[in-house]
């Protein structure tokens, strides 16, 4: 049995990871300030410490109270559009929280660290698929903040031997196929939950951000990866860290879907039209972001098993129908 520290373990991807760890018999301590996360999303059996990861004293207390085999760092500001309004806040918070946590881990002798990174650090694509070696040139402050965090971790590796895996998420989506967890952001800004809410009449009509991109139907193309597959990547990279090396992996299913295709799929799966109107482009959005996941496959045996668009939308839809008020509704 191993013990893990999970920051942001009450959030969307974090809570799904905590559930998977607890289910396989690992011990989990969650740090989450519950500003974005939900108490009800933390799997029974995990220890929840309500604290801000920026609080060095509380983080040090957690490291003093438990010995961890690895840290999973999910807690972060993560909205592209918000980062374009508050770039300095995004860069300061995401970078300093990652480095504070890495420092505390090093001091405690915990030398394995998994970072939630992002496809947003690539910026405008220089090839059809983004490879780990593709040009890093973020077009959003969010992407920049994660690029800086990755670089900070490189130094922690070189100097302190902190092995890290940076997982560059493409578009995390879907919900636990067992119906225990789902996606509940406040405010919600992500395409699939907003389209589902529009179809269900739980939210306003969707606005399509930009129809004049250089893509076949003029809307942005993204690579949607099921949260269960994303969690699987987190578990697999522990073996890479165990081999004593750091790595960076793209985590996407390798296929892109346009905003219009997503809207069509949500209508099909839900059996209801998605009311939408078209609007201007959203700052910070590159036209296309699709992953090459070859490296993750080769080095860890990972495969996207749940990432068809229909399964992503179906699981997200099922959770929302069962929890129209999200975690507030129990
Ligand atoms: N999008 C949209 N309307 C919305 C929310 C998102 O058209 O209300 C588009 C957005 O411009 C992007 C894609 O949907 O091209 C996915 O956006 P999301 O916010 O879900 O994830 P991101 O790509 O920002 O991580």
UniProtKB/TrEMBL annotation:
Entry's EC annotation: 5.1.3.2
Keywords: Carbohydrate metabolism, Isomerase, NAD
InterPro entries hit by this protein: Epimerase_deHydtase, NAD(P)-bd_dom_sf, UDP_G4E
Residue span, NAD-dependent epimerase/dehydratase domain: 5-252
Catalysis: reaction(s): UDP-alpha-D-glucose = UDP-alpha-D-galactose
Cofactor requirement: NAD(+)
Pathway(s) annotated for this protein in UniProt: Carbohydrate metabolism; galactose metabolism
Pfam annotation, one family: Epimerase
Molecular function in Gene Ontology: UDP-glucose 4-epimerase activity
PANTHER family xrefs: UDP-ARABINOSE 4-EPIMERASE 1, UDP-GLUCOSE 4-EPIMERASE
Subunit structure: Homodimer.
The family this protein is said to belong to: Belongs to the NAD(P)-dependent epimerase/dehydratase family.
Name of the molecule in the record: UDP-glucose 4-epimerase
Origin species: Roseomonas haemaphysalidis
Lineage: Bacteria, Pseudomonadati, Pseudomonadota, Alphaproteobacteria, Acetobacterales
Gene name for this UniProt entry: galE
């Amino acid at each position: 049995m191993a013990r893990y520290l999970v920051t942001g373990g009450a959030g969307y991807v974090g809570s799904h990871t905590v559930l998977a760890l607890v289910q396989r018999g690992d011990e989990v301590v969650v740090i989450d300030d519950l500003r974005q996360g939900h108490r009800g999303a933390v799997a029974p059996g995990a220890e929840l410490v309500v604290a801000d990861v920026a609080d060095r004293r509380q983080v040090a207390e957690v490291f003093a109270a438990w010995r961890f085999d690895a840290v999973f760092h999910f807690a972060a500001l993560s909205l592209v559009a918000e980062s374009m309004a508050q770039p300095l806040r995004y860069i300061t918070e995401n970078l300093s929280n990652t480095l504070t946590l890495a420092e505390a881990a090093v001091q405690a002798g915990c030398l394995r660290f998994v970072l939630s990174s992002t496809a947003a650090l690539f910026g405008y694509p220089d090839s059809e698929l983004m490879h780990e070696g593709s040009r890093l040139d973020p077009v959003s402050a969010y992407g920049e903040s994660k690029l800086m965090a990755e670089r900070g971790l490189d130094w922690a590796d070189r100097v302190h031997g902190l092995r890290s895996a940076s997982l560059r998420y493409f578009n995390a989506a879907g919900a636990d196929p067992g119906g225990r967890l789902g996606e509940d952001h406040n405010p919600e800004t992500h395409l699939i939950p907003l389209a589902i809410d529009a179809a269900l009449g739980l939210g306003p009509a969707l606005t399509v951000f930009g129809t004049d991109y250089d893509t076949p139907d003029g809307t942005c193309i993204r690579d949607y990866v099921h949260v269960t597959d994303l969690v699987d990547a987190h578990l697999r990279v522990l073996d890479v860290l165990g081999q004593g090396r750091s790595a960076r992996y793209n985590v996407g299913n390798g296929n892109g879907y346009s905003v219009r295709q997503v809207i069509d799929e949500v209508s099909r799966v839900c059996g209801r039209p998605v009311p939408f109107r078209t609007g201007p482009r959203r700052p910070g959005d590159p036209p296309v972001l699709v992953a090459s996941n070859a490296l993750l496959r080769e080095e860890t045996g990972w495969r996207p098993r749940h990432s068809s668009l229909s399964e992503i939308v179906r699981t997200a839809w099922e959770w929302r129908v069962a929890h129209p008020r999200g975690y507030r509704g129990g």
